Amino acid sequence: xxxxxxxxxxxxxxxxxxxxxxxxxxxxxxxxxxxxxxxxxxxxxxxxxxxxxxxxxxxxxxxxxxxxxxxxxxxxxxxxxxxxxxxxxxxxxxxxxxxxxxxxxx
Length: 106
Hints:
Elements: H1 25-35, H2 45-58, H3 63-69, H4 78-84, H5 91-99
């Protein structure tokens, strides 16, 4: 870290009160990393998202299922809009796709 940059303040608990009852996924994930002593400058919610994208692809997850798991909309092509737009996945299908992803232990 460069000396002219301030070190980011690390919270020990989530900043939650009546005026902010909703905690963003970004704050939650940062809290999770800090609490579990996993926080590093190169580790963020975006890096987790990138890792899941690659892992789902390596697990040969179907594109429409992968986009739904990652929170993306389907593409703008005819197949996505017309044929896949009404396609839904049940919990077992989503679970199977997530369980197919392999991670190394920490």
